[in-house]
Design a protein that fits this description.
Layout: H1 9-17, H2 22-35, E1 42-45, H3 48-64, E2 74-78, E3 87-88, E4 97-98, H4 104-111, E5 115-120, H5 154-161, E6 167-172, H6 179-184, E7 187-190, E8 210-215, H7 218-228, E9 252-256, H8 268-282, E10 286-290, H9 293-304, H10 308-321, H11 328-335, H12 342-363, E11 368-372, H13 380-385, H14 387-394, H15 400-403, E12 406-415, E13 421-429, H16 433-445
Parallel strand pairs: 2-5, 2-6, 9-10, 9-11
Antiparallel strand pairs: 1-5, 3-4, 6-8, 7-8, 7-12, 11-13, 12-13
Helix pairs in contact: 2-3, 9-12
């Protein structure tokens, strides 16, 4: 085995067809992970002996004729998602436990032949968009270590971008499955609420949480999403998909006007967004400027409105029983919840309903909405010095997606002069996951 492996799923399948064994691939990847400890991508890596046994069992299953569409595909799991007997910490050592069984998402993937390598780093309790809020170390962009990786699914994105695994699971509530994809030059897939079971996931905001996917290309990400999707009667937030209309052949994409674009002082990012719009126009898509105001206002409700109380609800019992266990920045974020009353919660619900109606009218005229995945990257040092304000700015184009129940795919869109990748994100209404992936794939395949 060589030290460099193309970890796209199509290449791995060709390797296995030629006789390469999953155990050889996994052994090489574990060696690479050890060499890359400075990236702080992993909180826990499974014992090599155990991984070898699982690979051997997988070979036996294949020989028996089991249906294994993900045979030998190595993956990582964000450490707020249970993965069998591996510990789950949510980046809080005092919280650590070992689940009796894996999350439903991991169970489905392993059942189809994928190999879980271990658990990846994250912003503590998935509270943050920076990758700089973990006692297990700061994650930086793989391409430029001076800049943040994005979070909260920081380790999962870094693990894929650094070539440790073929794909990784994250979670996404306010952008955690998209922003790290953008800053690391990979794909991030955020499904419709309820499409993937949340059973076995440490809650952040249960009404808004999803399990997301990081991958090297749109095709791989869409395949993984499909493999772990499905109604789960044991998850009260799981949903069954409605019938969906056929996809047309001509497309209109919503784009932001100059007045709605915000890059917080890094104007180079504007040119990359405009180039993405030009790419879509060049392949025959029709651009339409949309009113971004209702999307922006919906996003503000997540952290400046009563929904922050749901995060505190999820952690209240643990935090009360373990004073001092939370990072200071995590406590500061959760303390905002104390400003809101039950009356405020209902005011927020009613305000969001009005915003949803406005955005539904927008999507009636477009097939997808295209936005920058993030306004700009920040240096790690700057984020550590100003963790609340800069974190909020990073989520300018992501916070609204869950509030409005949209699905999304984030794809790479060029490199800044500082050597940090940037991305754009395709968004569509709930249950258009396959459609938005197909359209994102067109963009990925087009020539820049």
């Amino acid at each position: 085995m060589t030290e460099t492996i193309d970890l796209t799923m199509s290449t791995l399948r060709k390797m296995y067809a030629r006789g390469t064994k999953p155990a050889d691939v996994v052994a090489t990847l574990v060696k690479r992970i050890k060499q890359d400890q400075h990236r702080h991508a992993w909180i826990y890596v499974e014992d090599e002996r155990v991984l070898k046994e699982r690979c051997d069992e997988l070979d036996q299953r294949l020989q028996r004729g089991d249906d294994l569409p993900l045979f030998g595909i190595p993956f990582g799991v964000k450490d707020n998602i249970d993965a069998g007997q591996m510990p789950t910490s949510a980046a809080c050592p005092e919280f650590t436990y070992r689940a009796e069984k894996p999350s439903r998402a991991v169970e489905l993937l392993v059942g189809k032949g994928a190999i879980c390598i271990g658990k990846t780093n994250l912003d503590q309790f998935a509270t943050g968009l920076s990758g700089a809020r973990s006692p297990y170390g700061v994650c930086a962009s793989v391409q430029n270590a001076d800049y943040i990786s994005g979070g909260s699914s920081s380790g999962s994105a870094v693990a894929v971008a650094a070539g440790h695994v073929a794909f990784a699971l994250g979670t996404d509530t306010g952008g955690s499955g998209r922003i790290p994809a953008g800053f690391n030059g990979i794909v991030g897939v955020k499904p419709t609420l309820g499409k993937v079971s949340l059973r076995g996931v440490v809650p952040n905001c249960l009404t808004l949480d999803v399990v997301s996917v990081f991958a090297n290309n749109v095709s791989d990400g869409a395949e993984v999403l499909q493999a772990m999707s499905g109604y789960d009667a044991d998850d009260p937030y799981s949903k069954s998909p409605p019938p969906m209309p056929a996809v047309g052949t001509t497309f209109t994409f919503g784009r932001l006007s100059r007045r709605d674009l915000e890059f917080f002082g890094m104007e180079e990012c504007r040119a990359l967004y405009e180039s993405a719009c030009d790419r879509l126009a060049a392949i025959g898509w029709r651009p339409m400027e949309i009113d971004f105001a209702p999307f922006r206002e919906a996003g503000r409700l997540m952290f400046e409105g009563p929904w922050i109380a749901e995060r505190k609800s999820a952690l209240r019992a643990f935090a009360s029983a373990h004073p001092g266990a939370l990072l200071d920045v995590t406590q500061r974020v959760l303390s905002v919840a104390d400003r809101f009353s039950a009356v405020d919660a209902f005011d927020g619900i009613h305000a969001l309903a009005q915003l949803k109606r406005k955005t539904e009218q927008t999507f009636a005229a477009i097939d997808v909405l295209l936005v920058p995945t993030a306004p700009r990257p920040y240096r790690v040092a700057d984020m550590l010095a100003n963790p609340i304000e800069l974190n909020s700015q990073v989520g300018y184009y992501t916070h609204f997606a869950h509030m409005l129940d949209l699905c999304a795919v984030a794809v790479p869109n060029g490199m800044l002069s500082i050597g940090v990748p940037m991305g754009v994100t395709f968004l569509a209404p709930a249950w258009h996951d396959e459609r938005v992936a197909a359209l994102a794939n067109q963009f990925e395949q087009s020539e820049a």
